[in-house]
Design brief:
Strand order of the largest sheet: 11-16-15-14-12-13
Number of helices: 21
Strand content: 15-25%
Bound molecules: 1-deoxynojirimycin
Radius of gyration: 26 Å
Distance between the termini: 37 Å
Helix content: 25-40%
Shape: globular
Structural class: alpha/beta
Length: about 700
């Protein structure tokens, strides 16, 4: 197994040999990443001035499409690098392959809602095999930023609010993209981003400053990055923002002391788009030369797009403002990944692969399975779902009933909307025979026609451009006009089944109240239409669970389940951290999701495997309903008394269990002492003896409760 966190002597030897031959200009060239494939870039490749090319246009921020790569185009440039440049060092082609390539999977937040890391790993493997067939060897994914404020548009790109779930997803994605050997032709290098605390942007405004204590950083924001590093991730991306005043692109403590010295990361760090030169805007560098010196010294090995390294590192080093060893080390890290990813041995992509690798039937099946597991059933009054032959006339209405590309979500430059099936179309294909469908071209027509139906499936939600990079909202409601539309439909007296497409948890308590059933579908990807139709008609049973708290109102964010108790929690006398104008607590808690069947928990047992742990915690789950279904059993703990106020709950394990009707299964979790550590007063990891509460249950607000006493 090739784990890039271990050094391979033969590769290190080859790197040394190359370094010994390289001129200063050629070394700097390896740290430079332009973003187009034009004639000037080709000449720069020939001159050894390019280490990597990012396949994207300058307008590219997950919002639109940009021409896909192709094996032929990459091979042609690669040939210049490998045959015409002096040292024949191959180019690394990177692209934002964020949630699938031609086969578009649910947005990452939706993938996290599956609570199924194995399936997420498979999806990443599919994305790797498709992207690599077009010559891409490096993806800028997974995004592993924790987000507690869903006004932030990029909440769509991560795994939500919880460090444990996000770590599991981060490791799964890295394994899927890279495999055990990232030099295999169908594997690509992963990039854990955006290091770190980017989701803490003040006010949910992308690129804004974050103010996060070192303790919270270590306990909440850093763990998914650490998990990615432990899973062998080849690269990391430094974030745009400043953390407590220090921009991440110049954060030596985090990029070097923590990442390299503490965690032993041996891959390389790329800046975010032009974030090196943006150090000038941050006000910590006077010009691009100063910015370059700061960033390289901090541990940013490659300059994405800004060209500052190429322009100024030579003079910075020649003037003695930066030691040449710092540059050598950056180049060493970049070359290491180039060797490990097999670029020196097979720099070209077989142009015949794309014809069969992209959007195969098997790939679409993975997308359909994952989309189905990502949808969260939030409400199902009187078991209205799944639909059965009570409903002969079914209206399928709403602004997204016939949407195709809108199913994709943010960052899908390689998805083709005409290859997606709309929800309305999929419903017609999957519905049992004999149902009459009612469609409408406008809201007015919908309101006129809905009373002809026995039931209305209404698809509302956000356009993909409302989430993702640079797409924050100040109001977590549905886009303007959608709520009145729903109210008008409901007024006609027909029961409504609401499907919500969204890049974030929205605050929609009234819309949920008005509807008989609600399927929260995120942006479910290319097979989302079929996956939703399967769920509506009961071919599959909902099993998605919220990876992030759903608020009642925008004013509640940041809101997250693993908060501390405060001295005046809710229920403490008459004084508490309540809002006077809002019921307490979330609309739906972290981990929540319904099924068409009912799961019962019983017989919690906690046993210490040794006198002071680890612990084995088990419970029995029974499917007490009529249908087979999957439950996501969740393990939470609370450290009751500690030197630091600890969260009221912390997820420490989860398992997806498939149960036939009437079946009982025992789930067993192992709680290691390392699961009980936290960052103490001196910012170091500690473990404290004492009382712990334990829950095993269906979400962060329910479950069987027990306790144990840790003696050290
Ligand atoms: C900027 C984004 O922040 C980052 O996530 C992305 O990978 C790069 N642009 C490259 O497109």
């Amino acid at each position: 197994m090739s784990n890039q966190n271990n050094l391979h002597p033969s590769i290190e030897e080859k790197i040394n040999q190359l370094l010994a031959q390289m001129t200063l200009e050629e070394k700097i060239g390896q740290t430079n990443q332009p973003h187009t494939f034009g004639e000037p870039e080709k000449e720069a490749v020939r001159q050894g001035q390019v280490g990597s090319i990012l396949n994207a246009t300058s307008a590219f921020a997950g919002l639109g499409s940009s021409p896909s790569a192709s094996a032929e185009v990459c091979n042609a440039i690669q040939q210049i690098a490998v045959k015409e440049s002096r040292l024949n060092i191959p180019i690394l082609f990177g692209r934002d392959v964020i949630h699938g390539y031609r086969t578009v999977f649910p947005i990452p937040l939706g993938m996290a809602a599956s609570w199924n890391p194995e399936l997420v790993e498979l999806a990443a493997a599919v994305a790797a095999s498709e992207a690599s067939a077009d010559g891409i060897k490096w993806t800028f994914a997974p995004m592993v930023d924790i987000a507690r404020d869903s006004r932030w548009g990029r909440v769509a790109e991560g795994s939500g609010e919880d460090p444990y779930l996000a770590s599991a997803m981060a490791a799964a994605a890295v394994r899927g993209y890279q495999g055990t050997d990232m030099s295999a032709p169908h594997k690509i290098i992963a990039c854990a981003k955006h290091y770190v605390g980017y989701g803490g942007a003040e006010g949910g405004r992308d690129y804004e400053s974050a103010e996060i204590s070192m303790r919270t950083l270590r306990d909440i924001y850093l763990p998914p990055f650490h998990a990615a590093v432990n899973a062998g991730v080849g690269t990391l991306m430094a974030a745009f923002h400043d953390l407590n005043g220090v921009p991440l692109s110049a954060h030596r403590h985090l990029l070097t002391d923590v990442l390299r010295l503490e965690w032993g990361f041996k891959g390389f760090v790329v800046s975010d788009w032009a974030s090196v030169e943006e150090l000038v805007n941050h006000g910590i560098a006077k010009n691009r030369a100063e910015a370059s010196a700061l960033a390289l010294f901090a541990g940013v090995d490659m300059d994405m797009v800004s060209g500052s390294y190429l322009e100024s590192l030579g003079s910075v080093i020649e003037q003695g403002r930066l030691s040449p060893e710092v540059l050598d080390e950056a180049v060493r890290r970049i070359l290491r990944i180039k060797f490990l990813s097999g670029l020196f041995d097979h720099p070209y992509t077989d142009p015949r692969r794309a014809a069969t690798a992209l959007l195969s039937k098997e790939n679409r099946q993975v997308a359909r399975l994952l989309a189905g597991q990502s949808v969260v059933l939030l409400k199902n009054e009187a078991g209205i779902l799944p639909m059965d032959n009570r409903f002969r006339r079914v209206a399928v209405l709403g602004p997204h009933a016939h949407s195709q590309g809108e199913l994709f979500g943010t960052w899908t430059p390689d998805g083709r909307s005409d290859e997606a099936t709309s929800i309305a179309q999929a419903i017609q294909e999957i519905a049992p025979k004999g149902i009459d469908f009612i469609f409408a071209d406008s809201n007015d027509e919908s309101i006129r026609k809905v009373s002809l139906a026995d039931v209305a499936i209404v698809i509302l939600g956000e356009h993909p451009s409302r989430s993702g990079e640079n797409s924050n909202v100040s109001d977590l409601g549905l886009p303007p006009g959608q709520k009145p539309f729903l109210e008008a439909l409901v007024k006609q007296g027909v029961p409504v089944i609401l499907i919500v497409l969204a890049g974030r948890p929205l605050a929609i308590p009234e819309e949920i109240h008005l509807s008989k059933a609600v399927l929260y579908a995120w942006h479910p990807g290319i097979e989302g239409g079929y996956a939703l139709a399967d769920l509506l008609f009961g071919n599959t049973n909902p099993s998605g669970r919220l990876p992030i708290t759903m608020p009642r109102a925008t004013g509640q964010v940041p809101i997250y389940y693993n908060h501390r108790n405060s001295g005046r929690p809710i229920g403490y006398q008459d004084f508490s951290y309540r809002y006077v104008d809002l019921p307490h607590g979330p609309l739906f808690p972290f981990g929540y999701g319904l099924s068409y069947t009912a799961f019962l928990y019983a017989n919690l047992s906690i046993s210490a495997l040794a006198p002071s742990g680890p612990y084995e915690i088990s419970a029995e789950i029974t499917n007490a309903g009529q249908r087979a279904g999957s439950e996501v059993a969740q393990l939470y703990i609370r450290d009751r008394f500690a030197s630091i106020s600890r969260p009221v709950k912390e997820l420490k394990g989860f398992q997806r269990v498939m149960l036939k009707s009437g079946e009982t299964k025992k789930v067993t979790f192992r709680l290691n002492l390392s699961d009980l550590t936290f960052t103490g007063l001196d910012d170091l990891s500690i473990l404290e003896a004492g009382e712990y509460q334990v829950w095993v249950g269906p979400n962060s607000q329910a479950g069987l409760e027990g306790r144990f006493e840790l003696e050290l």
